Amino acid sequence: MKLLRKQVLIALAVLSMGSAFAVQAQTAPAEGRHGHAATQEQRMAKWGEHFAKRQAKLHDALQLTPAQESAWAAYQSAIRPTTPPAMGARGDWANLSAPARMEKMIALTEQRTATMKAHLGALNTFYSTLTPAQKKVFDANTMGGGEHHRGGHHMKGGMHG
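^ thats the sequence. predicted structure below, dont judge the formating
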């Protein structure tokens, strides 16, 4: 009797898991390998959601005063993620000469550097409005300052984690 009960429970578990996977397959958005978003737009939308959640968490942790809220809003609008510079198709890069590829890489790097400099200006303006205690919270929760960033993005529990 116990064996029959166990087999029925296992069968029910397998059936419920199978139906859950079927429902997920019907409702899940199209994704590429390893669950990554398939298109640039999907990746940017996913990153935007992630960014918004992290910024909301930081905002709550900082406990900003009403006087600091306008500086926060200006900082947020300045650092909002945008579409990265277009690199072009892989085939386009393969057709370039080695010096032309290097020039293109340098141009992309200069664009990223200009964006980072703009972010730095916004960061300095906002950071100057924070109290010393808020600065500690900000430092611990941004740009790899938190414990969760140590060891690299994909190295959690790995060699360097």
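Helices lie at 2-27, 40-62, 66-79, 90-94, 98-127, 132-141.
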